[in-house]
Design a protein that fits this description.
heterotrimer; A alpha+beta; B alpha+beta; C alpha/beta; B: alpha+beta; Cytochrome-c3 Hydrogenase, chain B; 3-stranded antiparallel beta sheet; 8 strands; globular; C: alpha/beta; Beta Polymerase, domain 2; 4-stranded mixed beta sheet; two-stranded parallel ribbon; 17% helix
Chain lengths: 124, 360, 128
């Protein structure tokens, strides 16, 4: 008799799976989706390049570029904890897929301008 | 009577196995005489990367050894480094790690129940177990940020905190999960056809389990009371803990141990939520590890032991992991001798093989 | 965690195995680690959640008697150490003769003269 109740429920219940891509996928507020970089705050200290466990970030100090290979990134969040200037953050949407030719390598130009320090006599 | 012996390969590709392992079965007229295992299909050599990544970044590599038991690998590694350097973790961090460890245990046992039902042919039980598992993975994603790989442990504590309001809502949701689990385990333990295929098959006696060095629900299903959580690491010392033991030693006893551990985990999570202390969740870490340390803890499949060795620089010199599936392989070789050929897939599944962990 | 380690010789291994088995101990793990000269092989036993360790100090390529007659489940650890480090154990319960782990480089974990680079270079276009 318990089996009959389960069988009847199966007929009238809506499906439990998410009908992707008509509905957006379900994620929560703290989900580690993809990485976002702000070029105006980066001072090329290269800490994120040294501490990435999968070596996905390449910083070129002479040419002033910051490159990330999005397919090597595992979204661990270590670079966000290590960066002292707050240029990196994590968004909650999952990363998109891409083909082999596109390869997912994104390059940014660093646009940081060092602020002028007031001279010592002005501060005293 | 001795008939002719043939050798049948139970190959790396099989619909029943989640991960590749190979067994050569020596068969005599439909009865298996012995089995010879052969492993090494997913050996990645993760342990040799330890001298190329700093010890604080290595946590992210340690948790990617296995997909199912990933949280306990990272928590055992952090426990090893904190023991070697003499760091005291704040109490709120130990309670949070206990909570996530018990959620990880529940999701692993529900995954096993689903695979086991699928190997016997019950696909709708497979669907129902994994439907409950989705609710648990949603809880993990809302608190830590990842469904399978959590990435929340670090040397000196945890990286994220949980608000008290979220904890009380989680308590209410656990009631619904517990009711659904009761209906599910009722089917696994009391159904006539499942009992016919499990009772009396693949018997492991208590002396054999002790001398072959088995661990986890495989040993507890044979009457051996061995569970590392009784030593009182993390928050288990405050809460108090008693292992779940069954006496028969066959496939039905091992299945019953895992079903009862599900409800024990729900009780532990409820105690952790009511007793959670307040305070900070991490301490700053200075200096480098020096010396050697053995760190043990209880994974969903048994006892895991991490061996760490450092020499005063930022890079560790050696890292060795011995997972419970490696300790259960001799027991598998001894169980299979003497059973029928048609029972081999489900007997291999009752020891819960996690081959990705076994050959890191 | 009990960290005291007792040192023994190569010839004592079967007698230690018999002593531990009659004492009711359980074999936990056999670990190998490179030492300043040669290697250390450590046997870990456990009774009622307390660990005891016994350590051998050996050179490369030594032959060691197996602990298999006392503890049947030790063949897993001994075959793995043979395939990764190159030690030979005599009298194993189940001998795989070097095919337990099939690696492309034989004995990958031996000590090498030149240590591996800190940052691995994978593609031609990545720069260090």
């Amino acid at each position: 008799m318990k089996m009959l109740k389960t069988i009847m429920k199966q007929f009238f219940h809506e499906p439990i799976t998410t009908k992707f891509p008509e509905e957006p996928p379900r994620n929560y507020e703290g989900t580690r989706g993809h990485l976002v970089f702000d070029p105006s705050k980066c001072t090329s200290c290269m800490m994120c390049m040294k501490r990435c466990p999968s070596q996905a970030i390449i910083v070129d100090r002479a040419a002033k570029t910051w490159t990330i290979d999005l397919f090597r990134c595992v979204m661990c969040g270590n670079c966000i904890d290590v960066c002292k200037f707050g240029c990196l953050s994590m968004e909650r949407e999952y990363s998109k897929s891409a083909t082999v030719e596109e390869r997912g390598v994104v390059k940014y130009d660093i646009t940081y301008v060092k602020p002028e320090r007031p001279k010592k006599e002005d501060r005293e | 009577m001795t008939g002719k012996q043939t050798i049948i390969p139970f190959g790396p590709q099989h619909p029943v196995l989640p991960e590749p392992i190979h067994l050569d079965l020596v068969v005599e007229d439909e009865r298996v005489v012995s089995a010879i295992p052969s492993i090494g299909y997913v050996h990645r050599g993760l342990e040799s990367l330890v001298d190329r990544r700093e010890y604080q970044d290595f946590v992210y590599l340690a948790e990617r050894i296995c997909g199912i038991c990933s949280f306990t690998h990272s928590s055992t590694f952090c426990q090893g480094i904190e023991g070697m350097m003499g760091i005291d973790v704040p109490p709120r961090a130990t309670y949070l790690r206990t909570m996530w460890g018990e959620y990880s245990r529940m999701h692993s046992h529900l995954l096993w129940l689903g695979l086991f039902a699928d190997s016997l042919g019950f696909e709708s039980l497979f669907y129902n177990s994994w439907k409950i598992r989705e609710a648990i993975l949603n809880e993990m994603e809302a608190t830590t940020g990842g469904r399978i790989i959590q990435g929340v442990c670090k040397v000196g504590g945890v990286r994220r905190d949980v608000t008290p309001q979220f904890l009380s809502e989680m308590d209410n949701r656990l009631d619904g999960i517990e009711d659904e689990m009761k209906e599910l385990t009722n089917v696994f333990l009391n159904d006539y056809t499942l009992k016919k295929r499990l009772v009396g098959k693949g018997v492991l006696s208590k002396e054999d389990a002790y001398l072959l060095g088995t661990a986890g629900p495989t040993a507890r299903g044979s009457g051996l009371e061995h569970d590392i959580r009784s030593t009182g690491y993390l928050a288990y010392g405050d809460i108090g803990f008693k292992p779940v033991v069954e006496k028969d030693g066959d496939g039905y006893a091992r299945c019953a141990v895992r079903c009862k551990e599900l409800f024990q985990s729900v009780e532990i999570i409820r105690r952790v939520i009511t007793d959670m202390p307040s305070g900070e969740v991490s301490v700053p870490v200075k200096g480098n590890p020096d010396g050697e340390y053995f760190s043990r803890s209880e994974q969903p499949r048994g006892e895991v032991i991490h061996y760490l060795k450092g020499n005063g620089t930022k890079y560790l010199t050696q890292f060795r992991v011995r997972t419970p599936t490696l300790a259960n392989v001799p027991a598998l070789v001894s169980i299979i001798g003497g059973c029928e050929l048609a029972d081999v897939p489900q007997i291999v599944l009752t020891i819960d093989p996690c081959i990705g962990c076994m050959e890191r | 965690m009990n960290m005291e380690i007792n040192s023994i010789n190569v010839a004592d291994v079967p007698s230690i195995g018999a002593k531990m088995k009659s004492g009711g101990y359980r074999l936990v793990v056999i670990t190998t680690t490179p030492a300043p000269e040669g290697y250390f092989i450590t046997y870990s036993f456990e009774k009622e959640y307390k660990l005891e360790h016994y350590r051998l100090s050996v050179e490369e390529g030594t032959k060691i008697p197996s602990i298999g007659p006392s503890y049947g489940g030790a063949f897993v650890y001994e075959n793995e150490i043979h395939d990764l480090y190159g030690f030979t154990f005599e009298g194993m319960t189940l001998d795989f003769k070097g095919t337990f782990f099939k690696t492309s480089i034989p004995f990958p974990f031996k000590k090498k003269e030149q240590p591996a680079p800190t940052v691995t270079v994978v593609n031609k276009e990545t720069k260090e």
